[in-house]
Amino acid sequence: MTNIQQFYRSTELPWLEIRHSANTDSCFQPHSHRTHSIGCLLEGQSYFHYRNQKRATHAGHLCLINADELHACRPTTDAGWRYLMLYLDKHWLGQMLNEGAEDCTDALSFEHALLEHPSLTTRFIKQCFALTCETGLTQQEQLLTLLLEIGLYDSGLSTERHPDCSPAIHQIAEYIRAHYDQNITLTELAQLCQLSPSHLQRSFRKYYGISPSHFQHQCRIHAACDLLKQQHTIGDVATATGYADQSHLYRWFRRFVDSTPRQYSQIQMPTQIQTPI
């Protein structure tokens, strides 16, 4: 299978990103996105780990992932996979699908993790690639129509579920988000919340599903994505996000994004595709 890493972004739709990827050496770590994510397989099969469940997915399934919720995916065989992802800013989604949106920008999320509707998945694929060809109002109308249709199958996009965090663990997560580019020690974090390092480590993993250090790397990679979209050099991005050099950035970027920083910074997208369904 040919290795493909293609990303589409538009200045007219800054709250949207589309990804088209194919490879045989995927190396995703458990991770989360700041955006809501909708995706499907175009070729191959995968294991989808989400909300403490492991699901087998294939072409015809539509995966729905809420912002900030931990998940992981990997192909089931060495033959690899090809997939399509649509990432949407959660604030924008709330504004578009809610009446009186100014009061509920975080109020929407997906109830289901997996929709088994081949015809809906086919329309999702066609609409995603159509979005890369249109501009302005037509582009936005196509996207909204697609989301409304998905919402019909998803029982109305339920109230968003945030992790049940104790105040102390939430405080530590916010501290890491604010200081992701600095060298932070577990002892330092433990002192902030007045817990022992071992208790903090266990509690943090219980609430967020990953360790504090893993969470810090995830915050760094989120920031790196933002800087790469703004066309900063990879060397500057590594420095700005707290990595000692570009090789460290590359290693962690691959783990979370499953592409290289250079591939991610290139804006390109095919305009036609043969759907597998």
Overall geometric form: globular
What string gives the helices and strands in order? EEEEEEEEHEHHHHHHHHH
CATH fold assignment of the largest domain: Jelly Rolls
> What CATH architecture of the largest domain would you give?
Sandwich
What would your notes on this structure say?
The protein is an alpha+beta fold. It folds into 2 domains: 4-161, Jelly Rolls (Sandwich); 167-263, Homeodomain-like (Arc Repressor Mutant, subunit A, Orthogonal Bundle). Helices cover 41% and strands 22% of the residues. The strands form 2 sheets. It has a 6-stranded antiparallel beta sheet with strand order 1-2-8-3-6-9. Strands 5-4-7 form a 3-stranded antiparallel beta sheet, with no helix packed on it. The longest helix has 18 residues, at 136-153. The protein starts with a strand and ends in a 12-residue tail after the last helix. The model is unreliable at 99-105, 158-164 and 271-277 (pLDDT under 50).
Task: Produce the secondary structure layout.
Blueprint: E1 4-10, E2 13-23, E3 35-43, E4 45-50, E5 53-58, E6 61-65, E7 71-75, E8 81-89, H1 90-97, E9 114-116, H2 118-131, H3 136-153, H4 167-178, H5 186-193, H6 197-208, H7 212-229, H8 234-240, H9 246-257, H10 261-265
Antiparallel strand pairs: 1-2, 2-8, 3-6, 3-8, 4-5, 4-7, 6-9
Helix pairs in contact: 2-3, 4-7, 5-6, 7-9
